[in-house]
Write a structure and sequence with these properties.
The chain is about 30% helix and about 25% strand. The chain has about 425 residues and is an alpha/beta fold. The protein has two domains: about 160 residues, Lyase, Ornithine Decarboxylase, Chain A, domain 1, CATH 2.40.37; about 180 residues, Alanine racemase (TIM Barrel). The strands form three sheets. Strands 4, 14, 15, 16, 17, 18, 19, 20 and 21 form a nine-stranded mixed β-sheet that branches. The longest helix has 19 residues. The structure holds ligand LLP.
Length: about 425
């Protein structure tokens, strides 16, 4: 527990701490960053990301493996670069992400391409640069990829995404491995799909993959998914189609509000034990973690604009909004909100923290006990994943700036988007 003068005790993510009445990230004062760069401002700890990565690296040590960071979680170039330099490949889902990945310096062979709706131009570009694997989600997609690859005189490396039909016990919008989801190929059809792929001269089967959902806080769904995937590998290899790698996707959760997900290293130790028992100990492992690498490494700093106490509710109006932090509005997600410079808590009140966007859904936190005044600054925690990458320009709000803190120094890694940046692509109609 870290708290300061009177504010309710809140446990902070690693790398965040109060000292001399000020919230710091790796020793850098957050209020000073907010003053220097303005708000809303995303701030990330490089050390926190590398430490999250090292938990996976510890778990998979000594095994043939590739960690492909799911860059949809946060695709800012400097963050990709940080993880790529630490050995990560990248899991991409669009041509845009591919260009970001290449700009960040990833080796194309360490890129895997996920997603249900890859277009022909996206396939062509990915083949041209030589990505490591296409994670294919339907027979129709296999056929198009086969045709595109043959047209280029190439064979596309493929893995088929299986839908293991296990319940990851998470929010329905971020659960992907159940029968009713649009993702993957149903268990019963997987073998036939592999036979089909193996018969296509433009395809080369290299792996099998699944991804059961996101913000998973228990080990059991992973153990089940691995078992089901191995049952399929038994059958596919018995049919004479070798599988080089097993890709278990991403999905490991983080602590937003007291959740206790398994440690990545411990989870992988248990999964590897299962692989050993089932005779797959030497097989190459691929994983696609997103949130668990970056989520708790970042915070969004915001300034209190107005206090609006009311009969039923007290509203705290801040300068960050649903366009910056879309997760509460989209998934009713919880993010802790803490002051950068706590007061004495003499005027502690319960507030709904809301943004300036014209929607009732524009809230960031509900019923939060805070002692604040206009002009105070707050940190919205666990904002490293699926915040900046999902930010929009709704209400013609420019997207926030981002800063990366590394060993006591801070670097602006993304400038605040100006209104001119937003207007640049539009044109007025000619005057009649
Ligand atoms: N691989 C595939 C195929 C995925 O679809 C995803 C996430 C990942 C890997 C990475 O999952 P992670 O380790 O980050 O859980 N916007 C939502 C999360 C959507 C996740 C979509 N797929 C949120 O803010 O909670």
């Amino acid at each position: 527990m870290s708290h300061s003068a009177g504010q309710l005790p809140v446990s902070l993510p690693p790398h965040f701490a109060y000292s001399s009445g000020q919230l710091h990230i790796d020793g850098v004062e957050l209020d000073a960053l907010a003053r220097a760069h303005g708000t809303p401002l995303f701030v990330y700890s490089k050390a926190a990301m590398l430490s999250a990565l090292s938990a996976y690296q510890r778990g998979l040590k000594g095994r043939d493996h590739q960690i492909c960071y799911a860059m949809k979680a946060n695709s800012t170039l400097a963050i990709l670069q940080t993880l790529v330099q630490a050995g990560c490949g990248l899991d991409i889902v669009s041509g845009g992400e591919l260009e970001r990945a290449l700009t960040a310096g990833v080796a194309p062979s360490k890129v895997i391409f996920s997603g249900v709706g890859k277009t022909r131009p996206e396939m062509r570009r990915a083949l041209e640069v030589g990505i490591g694997c296409f994670n294919v989600e339907s027979t129709a997609e296999l056929d198009v990829l086969d045709e595109v690859a043959r047209g280029m005189g190439l064979r596309a490396p493929v893995s088929i995404r299986v839908n293991p039909n296990v319940d990851p016990k998470t929010h329905p919008y971020i659960s992907t491995g159940l029968k009713g989801n649009k993702f993957g190929i149903a268990h019963e059809e997987v073998l036939a799909t592999y036979r089909h792929a193996a018969a296509c001269s433009g395809l080369r089967v290299v792996g099998i993959d699944c991804h059961i959902g996101s913000q998973i806080t228990e080990a059991a769904p992973y153990m089940d998914a691995m078992d089901r995937m191995l049952d399929l590998v038994d059958a596919i290899e018995a049919a004479g189609i070798p599988i080089e790698h097993l890709d278990l996707g991403g999905g490991l959760g983080i602590d937003y509000n007291g959740e206790t997900p398994p440690d990545a290293g411990a989870l992988w130790q248990a999964l590897l034990q299962k692989l050993d028992t089932r005779g797959y100990g030497q097989r190459k492992i691929v994983i696609e973690p997103g949130r668990s690498l970056v989520g708790n490494a970042g915070a969004c700093l915001t300034e209190v604009l107005y206090l609006k106490p009311g009969e039923q509710k007290n509203f705290l109006i801040v300068d960050a909004a649903m366009n910056d932090l879309p997760r509460p509005a989209m998934y009713q997600a919880f993010h802790k909100i803490v002051p950068l410079s706590p007061r004495d808590a003499l005027a502690m009140k319960t507030w709904d923290v809301v943004g300036p966007v014209c929607e009732s859904g524009d809230w960031i936190g509900r019923d939060r006990a805070l002692d604040v005044q206009a002009g105070d600054r707050l940190a919205v925690l666990a904002a490293g994943a699926y915040c900046m990458s999902m930010a929009s320009n709704y209400n013609t709000r420019g997207r926030a700036a981002e800063v990366l803190v590394d060993g006591g120094t801070s670097t602006l890694i993304r400038m605040r988007e100006s209104t001119a940046d937003q207007l640049r692509l539009e044109s007025l109609l000619p005057v009649a």
